[in-house]
Amino acid sequence: MKQLNQESNIYKTKQLVILKLGRVRAYLSINQNITNTQVRELCNFSRIQVKRTLEKMIEEKIIVRKGKGRGTHYVFLNQ
Length: 79
What we know:
This protein is mainly α. It contains 3 helices and 2 strands. Helices cover 63% and strands 10% of the residues. A two-stranded antiparallel sheet has the order 1-2. α2 packs across α3. It is elongated and about 45 Å long. The relative contact order is 0.14.
């Protein structure tokens, strides 16, 4: 029973992340770019969650990083 609850919680967590990634995509479809801070505010993610999420989106060639340091922002790859 405990394992079933853990699997259910993992499934719910993955679904929530997918929904929040949809927010990032929707934001980028309207705006030209997004920053780490904007993702944190939009998705209520921690800094670590945002970093992992953005890195995964870069690896999957969804977005590309522009700039460095405090000026870093992310845009859809096709822009």
